[in-house]
Amino acid sequence: MILWEIFAIAGLVFLILEMLVPSMFFLNLAIAGFITAIIALWINNWITLTILFAIFAILSIAFLRPILIKNKKNKETETGMEGKYIGKIVKVIEPIDKSSGAITIYDERWNARADVEEPIPAGSEVKIIKYDSLVLTVEKI
C-alpha cells in the first residue's frame, strides 16, 4: 500500500470516530491525516511522514480545537430554545398530565407535560420549567 493511502485511510478512520464520539479531538487527527496524505504524494519516507503527522496533529489540537469547541458552544447557545421559553407563563389549551397535554405560545400549539397527580385543566396558566426536544414540561402557577 502506498504511504499517502495509509494516511488518507487514517484520516477517514479518525473522521468516522469523530462522528461516533463528537469531541472535536478526532477531527483534528483527521485533518492531520489528510494533510499528511497530501504531503505523502511528494515525500516517500515513512519516518518523515510519521513525524509530520505528529506535528500536524499537535498543531491542529493546539490551535484548531479551541476554536472548534468555542464555535460549537456558541451555536448551542444561539440556537437553544431553553432561554427563550423557560420561565414563560402560557395558557393551557388541552388538559396536561404526566404524559400528554398542550399549551399555546405565540398562537402556536406545543406539546406539554407536567409532573402532577391531577391534570391541569384547559384555560389555566402554567409556567414552563423545562424544554426537552418538542415537549415542554410545565408547572401550575
A few lines on this structure:
The chain has 141 residues and is α+β, with helices and mostly antiparallel strands. It has four helices and five strands. A five-stranded mixed barrel has the order 1-2-3-5-4.
What does this protein structure show overall?
By secondary structure, the protein is an alpha+beta fold. It folds into two domains: 3-79, no CATH class; 83-140, OB fold (Dihydrolipoamide Acetyltransferase, E2P), CATH 2.40.50.140. The chain is built from four helices and five strands, in the order ααααβββββ. The chain has helices at residues 3-20, 26-39, 46-79, 82-85, and strands at residues 89-94, 102-105, 108-113, 125-132, 135-140. It has a five-stranded mixed beta barrel with strand order 1-2-3-5-4. A hairpin with a 2-residue loop joins β2 (102-105) and β3 (108-113). The protein starts with a helix and ends with a strand. The relative contact order is 0.11.
Instruction: Report the principal-axis shape.
Output: rod-shaped
Give the H and E element order.
HHHHEEEEE
| Low-pLDDT windows of residues | none
Strand content: 15-25%
From the alpha-carbon coordinates, what is the Rg to the nearest angstrom?
Answer: 25 Å
- Arithmetic mean of pLDDT: 89
Coarse structural class: alpha+beta
Count of all domains: 2
Largest sheet: 5 strands, mixed, barrel
How many helix segments?
4
| Widest sheet, order of strands | 1-2-3-5-4
Cα distance, first to last residue? 69 Å
